[in-house]
Hints:
This protein is an alpha+beta fold.
Amino acid sequence: MSKRLTKVLLVIVTVLSMLFSQVAFVQGAGGSEAAKTDAEYLKSVIDMIKEKHKGEVTDNQLVEGALKGMFNTMDPYTTYLTQEEANAFLDSANGDYEGVGLMIEKEDSFIKVLKVLPLSPAEKAGIIMGDKIVTVDGKSMVGVSMEKAAVMLQGPAGTKVSIGIIREGKNEVMSVEVERGAIKVNPVTYEIRGDIGYIKVDAFSGNVEEGIAKVLEEMDKNNIKKIVLDLRDNPGGDVEQAVALAEKFVPKGLITRLEYKSDLMDDEEYYSELEEKKYQLAVLVNGNSASAAEIVIGAIQDTEAGTVIGTKTFGKAKVQSVIPLLTPEAYQKYQKKFGGKVVDAYDLFIKYDVEPKDEEILGWYKMTTATYTTPKGRMIDGVGITPDIIVEDTPKVKDIDITSIQKLTMTWKPELNSEGADVYNAEKILRILGYDVDTPDLKLDEKTCEAISKFRTDNGLYPGGTLDFATQKALNSKLEEKILELDKQYLKAVEVLSK
Protein backbone atom coordinates (compact mmCIF):
# COMPACT_ATOMS: atom_id res chain seq x y z
CA MET A 1 0.00 0.00 0.00
CA SER A 2 1.40 3.43 -0.92
CA LYS A 3 2.53 5.82 1.82
CA ARG A 4 0.01 8.39 0.63
CA LEU A 5 -2.94 6.00 0.80
CA THR A 6 -1.78 4.65 4.16
CA LYS A 7 -1.78 8.19 5.48
CA VAL A 8 -5.31 8.82 4.19
CA LEU A 9 -6.64 5.69 5.85
CA LEU A 10 -4.81 6.57 9.05
CA VAL A 11 -6.53 9.95 9.17
CA ILE A 12 -9.93 8.29 8.69
CA VAL A 13 -9.32 6.03 11.67
CA THR A 14 -8.13 8.98 13.74
CA VAL A 15 -11.24 11.05 13.02
CA LEU A 16 -13.55 8.22 13.96
CA SER A 17 -11.84 7.37 17.21
CA MET A 18 -11.48 10.96 18.40
CA LEU A 19 -15.06 11.95 17.64
CA PHE A 20 -16.91 8.98 18.98
CA SER A 21 -14.96 7.13 21.62
CA GLN A 22 -13.22 7.78 24.89
CA VAL A 23 -10.28 5.69 23.68
CA ALA A 24 -7.25 7.91 23.24
CA PHE A 25 -5.56 7.64 19.83
CA VAL A 26 -2.23 5.86 20.18
CA GLN A 27 0.26 6.25 17.38
CA GLY A 28 1.62 2.86 16.32
CA ALA A 29 5.28 2.12 16.13
CA GLY A 30 5.25 2.60 12.38
CA GLY A 31 3.62 6.05 12.57
CA SER A 32 5.22 9.38 11.75
CA GLU A 33 5.21 12.84 13.34
CA ALA A 34 3.56 14.16 10.16
CA ALA A 35 0.65 11.73 10.58
CA LYS A 36 0.25 12.79 14.23
CA THR A 37 0.22 16.46 13.22
CA ASP A 38 -2.38 15.79 10.49
CA ALA A 39 -4.61 13.97 12.95
CA GLU A 40 -4.32 16.69 15.60
CA TYR A 41 -4.95 19.41 13.03
CA LEU A 42 -8.06 17.69 11.69
CA LYS A 43 -9.42 17.16 15.21
CA SER A 44 -8.81 20.84 16.00
CA VAL A 45 -10.72 21.91 12.88
CA ILE A 46 -13.66 19.70 13.82
CA ASP A 47 -13.64 21.03 17.40
CA MET A 48 -13.57 24.59 16.06
CA ILE A 49 -16.57 23.90 13.80
CA LYS A 50 -18.60 22.43 16.65
CA GLU A 51 -17.68 25.38 18.90
CA LYS A 52 -18.31 28.26 16.49
CA HIS A 53 -20.79 27.10 13.84
CA LYS A 54 -24.18 28.68 14.56
CA GLY A 55 -26.47 26.02 13.21
CA GLU A 56 -27.19 22.32 13.39
CA VAL A 57 -24.40 19.94 12.44
CA THR A 58 -24.09 16.35 13.57
CA ASP A 59 -20.96 14.34 14.21
CA ASN A 60 -21.86 12.01 11.31
CA GLN A 61 -22.20 14.98 8.95
CA LEU A 62 -18.71 16.16 9.90
CA VAL A 63 -17.27 12.68 9.43
CA GLU A 64 -18.95 12.24 6.04
CA GLY A 65 -17.72 15.68 4.98
CA ALA A 66 -14.18 14.72 5.94
CA LEU A 67 -14.49 11.41 4.11
CA LYS A 68 -15.78 13.05 0.93
CA GLY A 69 -12.90 15.50 0.99
CA MET A 70 -10.29 12.78 1.43
CA PHE A 71 -11.60 10.43 -1.24
CA ASN A 72 -12.10 13.28 -3.71
CA THR A 73 -8.40 14.17 -3.60
CA MET A 74 -7.50 11.04 -5.57
CA ASP A 75 -8.32 10.14 -9.19
CA PRO A 76 -11.64 11.15 -10.86
CA TYR A 77 -13.10 7.69 -10.30
CA THR A 78 -12.61 7.63 -6.52
CA THR A 79 -15.23 9.10 -4.22
CA TYR A 80 -17.11 8.61 -0.96
CA LEU A 81 -20.77 7.62 -1.32
CA THR A 82 -23.58 8.14 1.13
CA GLN A 83 -26.03 5.26 1.45
CA GLU A 84 -28.39 7.04 -0.96
CA GLU A 85 -25.63 7.63 -3.50
CA ALA A 86 -24.40 4.04 -3.21
CA ASN A 87 -27.91 2.69 -3.79
CA ALA A 88 -28.30 4.86 -6.90
CA PHE A 89 -24.91 3.77 -8.25
CA LEU A 90 -25.47 0.06 -7.61
CA ASP A 91 -29.01 0.11 -9.03
CA SER A 92 -27.72 1.71 -12.24
CA ALA A 93 -24.91 -0.85 -12.47
CA ASN A 94 -27.42 -3.69 -12.11
CA GLY A 95 -29.50 -2.29 -14.96
CA ASP A 96 -32.88 -1.95 -13.23
CA TYR A 97 -33.95 1.32 -11.59
CA GLU A 98 -36.34 4.25 -11.83
CA GLY A 99 -35.08 7.47 -13.36
CA VAL A 100 -34.46 9.20 -16.68
CA GLY A 101 -32.14 6.72 -18.45
CA LEU A 102 -28.83 8.56 -18.74
CA MET A 103 -25.26 7.37 -18.41
CA ILE A 104 -23.14 10.26 -17.18
CA GLU A 105 -19.49 11.10 -16.59
CA LYS A 106 -17.57 13.89 -14.90
CA GLU A 107 -15.73 16.21 -17.27
CA ASP A 108 -13.84 18.94 -15.43
CA SER A 109 -16.52 20.58 -13.25
CA PHE A 110 -19.43 19.43 -15.38
CA ILE A 111 -21.69 16.40 -15.52
CA LYS A 112 -21.68 15.25 -19.13
CA VAL A 113 -24.12 12.88 -20.83
CA LEU A 114 -22.08 9.88 -21.95
CA LYS A 115 -24.99 7.89 -23.33
CA VAL A 116 -28.77 8.19 -23.61
CA LEU A 117 -30.50 4.83 -23.25
CA PRO A 118 -32.75 3.91 -26.22
CA LEU A 119 -36.45 4.62 -25.63
CA SER A 120 -35.67 6.15 -22.23
CA PRO A 121 -37.51 9.20 -20.84
CA ALA A 122 -34.37 11.26 -21.43
CA GLU A 123 -34.20 10.31 -25.11
CA LYS A 124 -37.90 11.02 -25.60
CA ALA A 125 -37.35 14.45 -24.02
CA GLY A 126 -34.62 15.25 -26.54
CA ILE A 127 -31.45 14.98 -24.41
CA ILE A 128 -28.49 13.81 -26.49
CA MET A 129 -25.01 12.47 -25.91
CA GLY A 130 -22.55 15.26 -25.13
CA ASP A 131 -25.06 17.54 -23.36
CA LYS A 132 -23.71 19.05 -20.15
CA ILE A 133 -26.09 18.95 -17.18
CA VAL A 134 -25.80 22.22 -15.25
CA THR A 135 -28.96 22.12 -13.10
CA VAL A 136 -31.42 19.55 -11.79
CA ASP A 137 -34.67 20.99 -10.41
CA GLY A 138 -32.97 24.37 -10.17
CA LYS A 139 -29.99 23.10 -8.17
CA SER A 140 -26.55 23.61 -9.68
CA MET A 141 -24.74 20.47 -10.79
CA VAL A 142 -21.46 22.29 -11.44
CA GLY A 143 -18.77 20.74 -9.29
CA VAL A 144 -20.95 17.95 -7.87
CA SER A 145 -20.02 14.27 -8.08
CA MET A 146 -21.53 11.88 -10.62
CA GLU A 147 -23.07 9.94 -7.76
CA LYS A 148 -24.80 13.02 -6.33
CA ALA A 149 -26.09 13.88 -9.79
CA ALA A 150 -27.38 10.32 -10.21
CA VAL A 151 -29.35 10.61 -6.96
CA MET A 152 -30.91 13.85 -8.21
CA LEU A 153 -31.84 12.36 -11.58
CA GLN A 154 -33.28 9.13 -10.22
CA GLY A 155 -36.69 9.01 -8.59
CA PRO A 156 -40.06 7.24 -8.65
CA ALA A 157 -41.57 6.54 -12.06
CA GLY A 158 -44.18 9.14 -12.98
CA THR A 159 -42.48 12.01 -11.17
CA LYS A 160 -41.01 14.86 -13.20
CA VAL A 161 -37.58 16.44 -13.09
CA SER A 162 -36.37 19.65 -14.73
CA ILE A 163 -32.89 19.31 -16.25
CA GLY A 164 -30.88 22.34 -17.38
CA ILE A 165 -28.42 21.47 -20.16
CA ILE A 166 -25.83 23.22 -22.28
CA ARG A 167 -25.48 21.76 -25.76
CA GLU A 168 -22.28 21.83 -27.76
CA GLY A 169 -22.06 24.96 -29.91
CA LYS A 170 -24.66 26.84 -27.86
CA ASN A 171 -24.19 29.13 -24.89
CA GLU A 172 -27.68 29.34 -23.41
CA VAL A 173 -29.03 26.85 -20.89
CA MET A 174 -31.91 24.74 -22.22
CA SER A 175 -34.49 23.57 -19.70
CA VAL A 176 -35.89 20.10 -20.38
CA GLU A 177 -38.67 18.52 -18.33
CA VAL A 178 -38.44 14.73 -18.11
CA GLU A 179 -40.97 12.34 -16.64
CA ARG A 180 -39.08 9.56 -14.89
CA GLY A 181 -39.86 5.97 -15.75
CA ALA A 182 -38.90 2.41 -14.92
CA ILE A 183 -35.52 1.79 -16.56
CA LYS A 184 -34.70 -1.77 -17.47
CA VAL A 185 -31.46 -1.72 -19.37
CA ASN A 186 -31.38 -4.21 -22.23
CA PRO A 187 -27.70 -3.88 -23.06
CA VAL A 188 -27.59 -6.53 -25.81
CA THR A 189 -29.52 -6.15 -29.08
CA TYR A 190 -29.04 -7.89 -32.39
CA GLU A 191 -30.05 -8.20 -36.02
CA ILE A 192 -29.42 -10.82 -38.66
CA ARG A 193 -28.35 -9.05 -41.83
CA GLY A 194 -28.07 -11.65 -44.57
CA ASP A 195 -25.27 -14.01 -43.52
CA ILE A 196 -23.93 -11.58 -40.88
CA GLY A 197 -25.03 -11.29 -37.27
CA TYR A 198 -24.89 -7.76 -35.87
CA ILE A 199 -24.67 -7.56 -32.05
CA LYS A 200 -24.72 -4.26 -30.16
CA VAL A 201 -23.66 -4.12 -26.48
CA ASP A 202 -24.49 -0.73 -24.94
CA ALA A 203 -22.84 -1.25 -21.53
CA PHE A 204 -21.66 -4.05 -19.27
CA SER A 205 -24.52 -3.93 -16.78
CA GLY A 206 -25.66 -6.89 -14.73
CA ASN A 207 -27.51 -8.77 -17.48
CA VAL A 208 -25.02 -8.94 -20.36
CA GLU A 209 -24.05 -12.57 -19.75
CA GLU A 210 -27.65 -13.71 -20.04
CA GLY A 211 -28.30 -11.47 -23.04
CA ILE A 212 -25.28 -12.55 -25.09
CA ALA A 213 -26.04 -16.22 -24.45
CA LYS A 214 -29.56 -15.82 -25.88
CA VAL A 215 -28.33 -13.82 -28.88
CA LEU A 216 -25.64 -16.34 -29.81
CA GLU A 217 -28.19 -19.12 -29.48
CA GLU A 218 -30.25 -17.31 -32.14
CA MET A 219 -27.15 -16.91 -34.31
CA ASP A 220 -26.47 -20.64 -34.09
CA LYS A 221 -30.09 -21.52 -34.93
CA ASN A 222 -29.75 -19.42 -38.10
CA ASN A 223 -26.30 -20.87 -38.92
CA ILE A 224 -24.64 -17.44 -38.63
CA LYS A 225 -20.87 -17.68 -38.47
CA LYS A 226 -19.92 -14.05 -39.21
CA ILE A 227 -20.40 -11.61 -36.33
CA VAL A 228 -20.07 -7.83 -36.11
CA LEU A 229 -19.75 -6.93 -32.41
CA ASP A 230 -20.52 -3.24 -31.90
CA LEU A 231 -18.87 -1.79 -28.77
CA ARG A 232 -18.99 1.84 -29.92
CA ASP A 233 -19.99 4.25 -27.14
CA ASN A 234 -19.85 1.41 -24.60
CA PRO A 235 -18.56 3.06 -21.38
CA GLY A 236 -17.80 -0.23 -19.59
CA GLY A 237 -19.26 -1.57 -16.37
CA ASP A 238 -18.92 -4.87 -14.55
CA VAL A 239 -15.61 -6.67 -15.18
CA GLU A 240 -17.18 -10.10 -14.79
CA GLN A 241 -19.89 -9.29 -17.36
CA ALA A 242 -17.18 -8.20 -19.81
CA VAL A 243 -15.27 -11.41 -19.19
CA ALA A 244 -18.45 -13.46 -19.72
CA LEU A 245 -18.81 -11.91 -23.18
CA ALA A 246 -15.11 -12.30 -24.01
CA GLU A 247 -15.31 -16.01 -23.14
CA LYS A 248 -17.63 -16.49 -26.13
CA PHE A 249 -15.01 -15.30 -28.62
CA VAL A 250 -11.51 -15.40 -27.11
CA PRO A 251 -9.66 -18.71 -27.53
CA LYS A 252 -8.52 -20.71 -24.51
CA GLY A 253 -6.12 -18.67 -22.42
CA LEU A 254 -5.81 -15.41 -20.51
CA ILE A 255 -8.45 -12.70 -21.03
CA THR A 256 -7.19 -10.09 -18.55
CA ARG A 257 -5.20 -9.72 -15.35
CA LEU A 258 -6.27 -7.45 -12.47
CA GLU A 259 -3.48 -6.18 -10.21
CA TYR A 260 -4.57 -4.83 -6.81
CA LYS A 261 -2.74 -2.37 -4.59
CA SER A 262 -3.71 -3.92 -1.26
CA ASP A 263 -2.03 -7.07 0.01
CA LEU A 264 -5.44 -8.15 1.34
CA MET A 265 -6.82 -8.36 -2.20
CA ASP A 266 -5.38 -11.11 -4.38
CA ASP A 267 -4.57 -10.30 -7.98
CA GLU A 268 -7.06 -11.92 -10.34
CA GLU A 269 -6.64 -13.58 -13.69
CA TYR A 270 -9.61 -14.37 -15.93
CA TYR A 271 -9.33 -17.14 -18.51
CA SER A 272 -11.32 -18.38 -21.46
CA GLU A 273 -11.95 -22.10 -21.81
CA LEU A 274 -13.04 -21.85 -25.46
CA GLU A 275 -11.42 -24.80 -27.22
CA GLU A 276 -12.40 -23.89 -30.77
CA LYS A 277 -13.07 -20.55 -32.43
CA LYS A 278 -16.69 -20.57 -33.57
CA TYR A 279 -17.19 -17.25 -35.38
CA GLN A 280 -15.48 -14.89 -37.77
CA LEU A 281 -15.48 -11.67 -35.76
CA ALA A 282 -15.16 -7.94 -36.41
CA VAL A 283 -15.38 -5.49 -33.48
CA LEU A 284 -16.47 -1.85 -33.92
CA VAL A 285 -14.95 0.70 -31.50
CA ASN A 286 -14.59 4.45 -31.01
CA GLY A 287 -13.31 7.02 -28.53
CA ASN A 288 -16.17 6.29 -26.13
CA SER A 289 -15.40 2.56 -25.92
CA ALA A 290 -13.93 2.41 -22.43
CA SER A 291 -13.04 0.48 -19.31
CA ALA A 292 -14.63 -2.99 -19.24
CA ALA A 293 -15.32 -2.68 -22.99
CA GLU A 294 -11.58 -2.30 -23.50
CA ILE A 295 -11.00 -5.56 -21.60
CA VAL A 296 -12.98 -7.31 -24.35
CA ILE A 297 -11.38 -5.31 -27.17
CA GLY A 298 -7.84 -5.85 -25.86
CA ALA A 299 -8.37 -9.58 -25.41
CA ILE A 300 -9.81 -9.99 -28.90
CA GLN A 301 -7.00 -7.99 -30.45
CA ASP A 302 -4.16 -9.69 -28.52
CA THR A 303 -5.44 -13.20 -29.24
CA GLU A 304 -6.35 -12.39 -32.85
CA ALA A 305 -9.86 -13.63 -32.19
CA GLY A 306 -11.22 -10.90 -34.46
CA THR A 307 -10.46 -7.66 -36.26
CA VAL A 308 -10.86 -4.36 -34.37
CA ILE A 309 -12.22 -1.55 -36.57
CA GLY A 310 -12.92 2.15 -35.87
CA THR A 311 -11.11 4.88 -33.94
CA LYS A 312 -8.82 4.71 -30.90
CA THR A 313 -10.59 3.73 -27.67
CA PHE A 314 -10.83 5.86 -24.53
CA GLY A 315 -7.99 4.31 -22.51
CA LYS A 316 -9.20 3.44 -18.99
CA ALA A 317 -7.55 0.47 -17.30
CA LYS A 318 -8.41 1.50 -13.74
CA VAL A 319 -10.71 -0.81 -11.78
CA GLN A 320 -12.98 0.49 -9.03
CA SER A 321 -14.27 -1.42 -6.02
CA VAL A 322 -17.40 -0.29 -4.18
CA ILE A 323 -16.98 -1.18 -0.50
CA PRO A 324 -18.90 -0.23 2.66
CA LEU A 325 -17.32 1.69 5.55
CA LEU A 326 -18.12 0.94 9.16
CA THR A 327 -19.85 3.47 11.39
CA PRO A 328 -17.73 4.95 14.18
CA GLU A 329 -19.65 2.84 16.70
CA ALA A 330 -19.01 -0.34 14.72
CA TYR A 331 -15.37 0.62 14.29
CA GLN A 332 -15.01 0.98 18.07
CA LYS A 333 -16.94 -2.25 18.71
CA TYR A 334 -14.75 -4.39 16.48
CA GLN A 335 -11.57 -2.67 17.65
CA LYS A 336 -12.39 -3.74 21.21
CA LYS A 337 -13.37 -7.22 20.08
CA PHE A 338 -10.43 -8.02 17.80
CA GLY A 339 -7.82 -5.42 18.70
CA GLY A 340 -7.37 -4.28 15.10
CA LYS A 341 -8.26 -0.91 13.56
CA VAL A 342 -10.58 -1.70 10.66
CA VAL A 343 -12.86 0.82 8.92
CA ASP A 344 -13.38 -1.15 5.71
CA ALA A 345 -16.17 -3.75 5.96
CA TYR A 346 -14.44 -5.86 3.31
CA ASP A 347 -11.27 -5.99 5.42
CA LEU A 348 -13.38 -6.92 8.45
CA PHE A 349 -14.75 -9.91 6.53
CA ILE A 350 -11.34 -10.95 5.15
CA LYS A 351 -9.48 -10.64 8.47
CA TYR A 352 -12.10 -11.82 10.95
CA ASP A 353 -14.81 -13.54 8.84
CA VAL A 354 -17.40 -11.05 10.17
CA GLU A 355 -20.11 -9.52 7.99
CA PRO A 356 -21.37 -6.27 9.58
CA LYS A 357 -25.06 -5.50 9.94
CA ASP A 358 -26.74 -2.88 7.72
CA GLU A 359 -26.95 -0.40 10.61
CA GLU A 360 -23.18 -0.72 11.11
CA ILE A 361 -22.50 0.80 7.66
CA LEU A 362 -21.92 4.56 7.53
CA GLY A 363 -21.49 4.84 3.76
CA TRP A 364 -19.50 3.39 0.89
CA TYR A 365 -16.38 4.26 -0.99
CA LYS A 366 -15.84 3.78 -4.70
CA MET A 367 -12.11 3.72 -5.14
CA THR A 368 -9.58 2.71 -7.76
CA THR A 369 -8.12 -0.42 -6.21
CA ALA A 370 -6.59 -2.13 -9.24
CA THR A 371 -5.53 -1.82 -12.85
CA TYR A 372 -5.87 -4.39 -15.60
CA THR A 373 -3.66 -5.50 -18.46
CA THR A 374 -4.44 -7.29 -21.72
CA PRO A 375 -3.39 -10.90 -22.40
CA LYS A 376 -0.06 -9.66 -23.78
CA GLY A 377 0.51 -7.51 -20.70
CA ARG A 378 -0.35 -4.18 -22.32
CA MET A 379 -1.28 -1.30 -20.01
CA ILE A 380 -3.74 0.81 -22.00
CA ASP A 381 -4.64 3.37 -19.31
CA GLY A 382 -4.37 6.88 -20.74
CA VAL A 383 -3.29 5.36 -24.06
CA GLY A 384 -6.28 3.50 -25.46
CA ILE A 385 -6.34 0.72 -28.03
CA THR A 386 -5.52 1.53 -31.64
CA PRO A 387 -7.80 -0.49 -33.96
CA ASP A 388 -6.34 -2.96 -36.45
CA ILE A 389 -8.10 -0.93 -39.13
CA ILE A 390 -8.73 2.78 -38.54
CA VAL A 391 -12.03 4.10 -39.96
CA GLU A 392 -13.42 7.47 -38.93
CA ASP A 393 -16.64 7.75 -36.90
CA THR A 394 -20.06 7.88 -38.54
CA PRO A 395 -21.55 11.41 -38.70
CA LYS A 396 -24.98 12.10 -37.21
CA VAL A 397 -27.90 12.90 -39.49
CA LYS A 398 -30.21 15.64 -38.18
CA ASP A 399 -28.87 15.01 -34.63
CA ILE A 400 -29.69 11.30 -34.90
CA ASP A 401 -27.11 8.55 -34.57
CA ILE A 402 -28.13 6.06 -37.23
CA THR A 403 -26.48 3.24 -35.29
CA SER A 404 -29.04 3.81 -32.50
CA ILE A 405 -32.05 3.07 -34.74
CA GLN A 406 -33.64 -0.36 -34.45
CA LYS A 407 -35.49 -1.94 -37.33
CA LEU A 408 -39.28 -1.97 -37.18
CA THR A 409 -40.60 -5.29 -35.86
CA MET A 410 -43.46 -5.85 -38.35
CA THR A 411 -45.52 -7.38 -35.53
CA TRP A 412 -48.34 -4.78 -35.43
CA LYS A 413 -49.72 -1.87 -37.46
CA PRO A 414 -49.53 1.44 -35.56
CA GLU A 415 -52.01 4.12 -36.61
CA LEU A 416 -52.98 7.62 -35.42
CA ASN A 417 -52.40 8.00 -31.63
CA SER A 418 -50.74 4.57 -31.33
CA GLU A 419 -47.74 4.46 -29.01
CA GLY A 420 -44.74 2.17 -29.07
CA ALA A 421 -41.11 1.58 -29.95
CA ASP A 422 -41.89 1.00 -33.64
CA VAL A 423 -43.42 4.49 -33.85
CA TYR A 424 -40.31 5.94 -32.24
CA ASN A 425 -37.92 4.20 -34.63
CA ALA A 426 -40.12 4.96 -37.64
CA GLU A 427 -39.97 8.67 -36.79
CA LYS A 428 -36.18 8.45 -36.57
CA ILE A 429 -35.99 6.84 -40.00
CA LEU A 430 -38.38 9.36 -41.54
CA ARG A 431 -36.37 12.21 -40.02
CA ILE A 432 -33.02 11.06 -41.43
CA LEU A 433 -34.72 10.56 -44.80
CA GLY A 434 -35.75 14.24 -44.76
CA TYR A 435 -39.45 13.95 -43.95
CA ASP A 436 -41.10 16.57 -41.73
CA VAL A 437 -41.58 15.03 -38.27
CA ASP A 438 -41.13 16.49 -34.81
CA THR A 439 -38.55 15.22 -32.34
CA PRO A 440 -39.02 11.42 -32.35
CA ASP A 441 -41.15 10.06 -29.51
CA LEU A 442 -43.40 7.07 -28.89
CA LYS A 443 -46.67 8.63 -30.15
CA LEU A 444 -47.87 8.56 -33.75
CA ASP A 445 -49.35 12.04 -34.13
CA GLU A 446 -51.00 13.72 -37.11
CA LYS A 447 -47.74 15.21 -38.38
CA THR A 448 -46.13 11.78 -38.42
CA CYS A 449 -49.19 10.34 -40.19
CA GLU A 450 -48.73 12.95 -42.93
CA ALA A 451 -45.04 12.07 -43.22
CA ILE A 452 -45.87 8.35 -43.44
CA SER A 453 -48.45 9.01 -46.16
CA LYS A 454 -45.93 11.00 -48.18
CA PHE A 455 -43.28 8.30 -47.72
CA ARG A 456 -45.76 5.68 -48.91
CA THR A 457 -46.64 7.53 -52.11
CA ASP A 458 -42.95 8.31 -52.73
CA ASN A 459 -42.25 4.59 -52.62
CA GLY A 460 -45.10 3.35 -54.81
CA LEU A 461 -47.50 2.45 -51.98
CA TYR A 462 -51.08 3.59 -51.42
CA PRO A 463 -51.33 6.85 -49.42
CA GLY A 464 -52.29 6.67 -45.75
CA GLY A 465 -50.88 7.30 -42.30
CA THR A 466 -50.84 3.74 -40.95
CA LEU A 467 -47.56 1.92 -40.39
CA ASP A 468 -48.69 -1.26 -42.13
CA PHE A 469 -46.28 -4.09 -42.82
CA ALA A 470 -45.47 -2.93 -46.36
CA THR A 471 -44.57 0.52 -45.02
CA GLN A 472 -42.45 -0.94 -42.22
CA LYS A 473 -40.62 -3.17 -44.69
CA ALA A 474 -39.92 -0.17 -46.95
CA LEU A 475 -38.66 1.92 -44.00
CA ASN A 476 -36.37 -0.91 -42.89
CA SER A 477 -34.99 -1.14 -46.40
CA LYS A 478 -34.30 2.61 -46.48
CA LEU A 479 -32.56 2.36 -43.08
CA GLU A 480 -30.28 -0.38 -44.43
CA GLU A 481 -29.43 1.84 -47.38
CA LYS A 482 -28.52 4.73 -45.04
CA ILE A 483 -26.34 2.47 -42.93
CA LEU A 484 -24.51 1.24 -46.02
CA GLU A 485 -24.16 4.82 -47.20
CA LEU A 486 -22.95 6.41 -43.96
CA ASP A 487 -21.63 3.81 -41.49
CA LYS A 488 -18.18 3.30 -42.97
CA GLN A 489 -17.00 1.35 -39.91
CA TYR A 490 -19.74 -1.22 -40.33
CA LEU A 491 -19.09 -1.37 -44.08
CA LYS A 492 -15.42 -2.11 -43.42
CA ALA A 493 -16.43 -4.88 -41.01
CA VAL A 494 -18.63 -6.47 -43.69
CA GLU A 495 -15.75 -6.22 -46.16
CA VAL A 496 -13.33 -7.89 -43.73
CA LEU A 497 -15.77 -10.70 -42.94
CA SER A 498 -16.38 -11.32 -46.65
CA LYS A 499 -12.76 -12.11 -47.40
